[in-house]
Amino acid sequence: MSLAKLNMVQAINLALFEEMEKDPTVLVMGEDVGVDGGVFRVTEGLLSKFGSDRVIDTPLAESGIVGTAIGMAVSGLKPVAEIQFEGFSYMTIDQLAAHASRIRYRSRGTYHCPLVVRAPYGGGVKALEHHSEAVATFYIHIPGLKVVIPSTPYDAKGLLISSIRDPDPVMFFEPKKLYRAFKEEVPEGEYTVPLGVGKKITEGEDLTLIAWGAMVRVCQEAMEQVKDLNVELIDLRTLSPLDDKVIIDSVKKTGRVVIVHEEPRTLGFGAEIIARINEKALLSLEAPVKRVTGFDVPMPLPKLEDYYLPNAAKVADAIKEVAAF
Amino acid sequence: MSLAKLNMVQAINLALFEEMEKDPTVLVMGEDVGVDGGVFRVTEGLLSKFGSDRVIDTPLAESGIVGTAIGMAVSGLKPVAEIQFEGFSYMTIDQLAAHASRIRYRSRGTYHCPLVVRAPYGGGVKALEHHSEAVATFYIHIPGLKVVIPSTPYDAKGLLISSIRDPDPVMFFEPKKLYRAFKEEVPEGEYTVPLGVGKKITEGEDLTLIAWGAMVRVCQEAMEQVKDLNVELIDLRTLSPLDDKVIIDSVKKTGRVVIVHEEPRTLGFGAEIIARINEKALLSLEAPVKRVTGFDVPMPLPKLEDYYLPNAAKVADAIKEVAAF
Amino acid sequence: MSVDWLSILDAEGNVDESLEPKLDTETLEKFYRTMVLTRMYDDKALKLQRQGRMLTFGSSLGQEATAVGSAFAMKPDDWFFPAFREHGVQIARGIPLSLLYIYWMGSEDANLKLPPKNFPVAIPVSTQILHAVGAAWAAKIKKQNIASVVYFGDGATSEGDFHEGMNFAGVFKTPTVFICQNNQYAISLPREKQTASKTLAQKALAYGFEGIQIDGNDVLAVYSVTLTALEKARSGGGPTMIECFTYRMGPHTTSDDPTKYRKAAEVEEWKKKDPIKRLRIYLEKKGMWDQSREDAMIKEITDEVEKAVKEAESYKPVVENMFKYVYADKPLHLKEQMDELQGFISKRRGNESG
Amino acid sequence: MSVDWLSILDAEGNVDESLEPKLDTETLEKFYRTMVLTRMYDDKALKLQRQGRMLTFGSSLGQEATAVGSAFAMKPDDWFFPAFREHGVQIARGIPLSLLYIYWMGSEDANLKLPPKNFPVAIPVSTQILHAVGAAWAAKIKKQNIASVVYFGDGATSEGDFHEGMNFAGVFKTPTVFICQNNQYAISLPREKQTASKTLAQKALAYGFEGIQIDGNDVLAVYSVTLTALEKARSGGGPTMIECFTYRMGPHTTSDDPTKYRKAAEVEEWKKKDPIKRLRIYLEKKGMWDQSREDAMIKEITDEVEKAVKEAESYKPVVENMFKYVYADKPLHLKEQMDELQGFISKRRGNESG
Ligand SMILES: Cc1ncc(C[n+]2csc(CCOP(=O)(O)OP(=O)(O)O)c2C)c(N)n1
Ligand SMILES: Cc1ncc(C[n+]2csc(CCOP(=O)(O)OP(=O)(O)O)c2C)c(N)n1
Ligand SMILES: [Mg+2]
Ligand SMILES: [Mg+2]
Predict the structure, then answer these.
(1) What is the DSSP string of B192-243?
(2) Model's pTM, two decimal places?
(3) How much is the ipTM here?
């Protein structure tokens, strides 16, 4: 297996390429994914390799993309549908909540829906309105969907392969801030990162720091500012279904928790993590869990986005505050 | 002011009637709200009184209903749009998240959106698929919306009047299980119940029990089964923005909390309540907060709905468990 | 740009011989029997509902020709995507009556034994249209020689998913047949208030393919047109929209009171156009049918329906299925929640017996 | 059923006198100046973007006639709902250039001073169509004698909201004018792959009202047809859809590389049809314009644009506005969150100065 230094866009492209080569039922569809190679170039090169039956430029209609992909998935194909930006995924919620997530359930296993919906998400790239939102809550709250968010090129490839192979519908949100932020070694050829398993990035006894996607990097920066503390950084990677265990084990050890996410605070995923900690490790807590999150306001346009988003300084402050409690 | 014994359907009808009479900019629109008087008869009699310009039978299109209502609202009307069942509200999320909730923000106050979206919600009435779901999370998580759920005829009227008069968009979810469950005295004529203020239904020192909508009744039944305990029952009434204070004050007193909701557990509103308690009253807690909720599965068809829904016995068990912790 | 109108068998049972499909006795009797069975299935469902033995139910009274004519034009291997009023199609496609009753008694377990290529009922109006287009598209990509048929009402044409589905079908020339059961109402809203379009069929022109309007109470017209559309679809000719002009004789569902929004006289007019009556006259004229056969058939169907109801009512839904079919594998939190429920159930049982 | 095609001023500046609208010198000069101003505003925006002084920007190069012709057909009291490429309409409607730049530099504060009846930019494609229908409907209900104009692209016609909006407009005969800027592409997707419909205008037939296709690079045609549609709308004649056949001369936005999906030759062909050039020839033929006036105007506009940029760049967005405009009154949790942010900011400031 050869290794190459790839950024996240390249790693995702490679995962698509390899899975499409291996499995003729895998196909890619969405707005501008074919001739144009995707507005972020994630699907570049796929059309010329796999042809227009498997790399499909669709009309401009998000519910249409997801709804027809559902029809394909129940007929034995494995569509990977791209929603061009997270802010247009709202239009897909009905097809996802009313159908993709329920086909196995409603049909009692007669049909299932091996669909992946990919969408870039999140802020920090000075984009237009609706091009910087973090929207995971909507999908985590829908039983029957899985929600995956990678934070590194290596994980992105391995998680995407697992998502494509998963027999159930998976929302795969890509932190666009990290698309080209850094490269790391990504093996060519088959490997998977399992869904539903979080990852301890660092071990520590003083405090548990929980994040996913672009916020993992922010947490890593923050940890540079609090070097005197042994922080255990957890990258959840899969938000639904949640790997409680990695969280609970860590909390039982540290007793102190900071959660970081871009989503608005109210009913952002931090709320559910706190609820799980409350249920399974309340007595271990030595301080209130602290949330460093987007505010409960619409994601602002770029001039104010730095004020809206969690950053290393805010996270470092939170770590110090919780550690000192 | 005269009093009449009304059920919730009648109380809501009365609120609409009175507000439409008082304010010529208020109008009602939706599927079957006019000639038919609404599938639950909530809008009965309005068409003949106010005419088809103000009581509008629309084509079958939920995004269309909410989207055109937004256009009306920014032009100075006060539309009360009905979505026939909660399970079809998913189709409105885009217009609500991308527009209704952001018009004031995006236009920096040049425009605002005095829209009410009414929808029946929730289980327990042996209905078809998508006719029994509880969907508040989707809307609570959208900054700029308000979310209101009444549990009695009196509150239904007063809260709906406040919602119609509110200058911002309000989701008004009606517990269909309670539509005709009981009557109570409802004054004719003007009164309001303020948004954003929860209500203590009983005072108690042993445990705080938090619910809204149809679950308030379930909690009241449960309390009959644990009469030896002094339970403080709180009906939130407005879920967004949340009245932290009524919760936090109570938790500081009781130290023990049970939250009851129909929504699936993961990222149901219970999660956020626990997070707020964690942030503002962690040290008062003497036991983990317990959630009695719908499971993280699609709302089942009626044969299994009693297994899915919280009921008095489950709530009583939870109360005893938390009290004994 | 224009749309055609087609009818073959009129309300009095007269046939336009130039258009009459050549069907043998056995086939015509199957059409007739299935239409009557559908009506009796429906009728029983309404009775059960009134007795509290079923959920809210939407009868297809008066629409049997649309359902049965189109269903028998399909091959078993063609995809079928229903809305919620396609009882006749489901019956014609061989879904056991007992399963249909189990579903409408309130259990997804009905679908445990759903025969292939039949999709479960879709409650949210028009959403199934996209699935049908996707399944047809998949067939095209896989070079399978099959088509996909989707049913929806006049009301459904107002939804965004109808539009997106029709447009995808036009662009990708998917082998999809769109069957619009224009029964003149969407609950209380009459067709003319649903859209200002003169016909529903002409909406197909906005997507670059053919729309045709036909007498939906004429089983021969429905059969012929669907057959042609399906052959066109399978041979690469792309999609067709068929507007079946029919009438919902009963209430929208058992919760509905149609006297609030339509006149008795209108219903009486349509009674004269009954799809079953006219087929019976046609069969009788051909010497294929008489009263004694009718009586025998009614008796047979009555027994069949009663047996299905008995079977359905004896079915006990499985509580665990609520957790079993969310994902292929049960994640930890669902195991915990299932344990929680089972703990509760056995504790209650203990309380009750103890 | 059919749709018409209209053009008045051809690519060489020749006019069809039978259709020529009677406009005075002042008006024609205003058309011309606004089109040139739009182009120069656009051009400056592209330069600023390349220097990192602006967000992603979608230029309207080549579409100036559609924007300006339709905008000047409106009255100030008519509603205007843009997508995101309607710079020319915004300018013609009197929105100060500096505000447009402030918006595209990344601040909602631009809209603090939005003149009445102009709606902010809508980024999600086609969603604004419903608002325009709702506003028109409100005007009808309030018996106001105004209409509502909404702009969208060829791509937008595939979205569900387009369909639902057109259908509501048809049913309720709302005074709405739907202006589809068919610039032949939705990012990389050419018009023929967006829908199999032969024209976009004919989609109106599915909703029971008139659609017309016109030369979108012909400002006289755009003006005349929009004027007629608006008068019809205001006098109770209901909606009209106008498909302006035009071309996006530049990339989709500054992030886009159109060489990936279209040929240089195609762009060259369309260059010949430039809307500004043909209007200038027309004006010159009429003796209304010459090089010296052109030079003076260009100089004037250059200064105007520079001044607007300077103003825009000196604007400092207000952090508190992030919390101030979520609701009419700030609820407790937003007060707490604003305090949290302000605490953080002042602590940092303290750290920096300390
Ligand atoms: C998206 C959605 N909105 C509303 C409903 C409630 N509803 C059920 S059937 C129906 C009318 C459907 O009319 P039509 O499409 O003509 O079919 P028909 O009932 O006449 O067969 C409505 C509004 C629904 N099921 N789905
Ligand atoms: C709902 C939605 N989906 C996707 C996008 C991303 N996007 C922005 S513009 C565009 C193409 C729009 O094409 P068209 O409607 O023809 O307008 P044009 O850009 O050509 O003016 C797309 C896909 C979006 N803004 N909104
Ligand atoms: Mg109908
Ligand atoms: Mg375009």
Answers:
(1) ---TT--EESS--SSEEEEE-THHHHHHHHHHHTTTTS-EEEEE--EEETT-
(2) 0.98
(3) 0.98
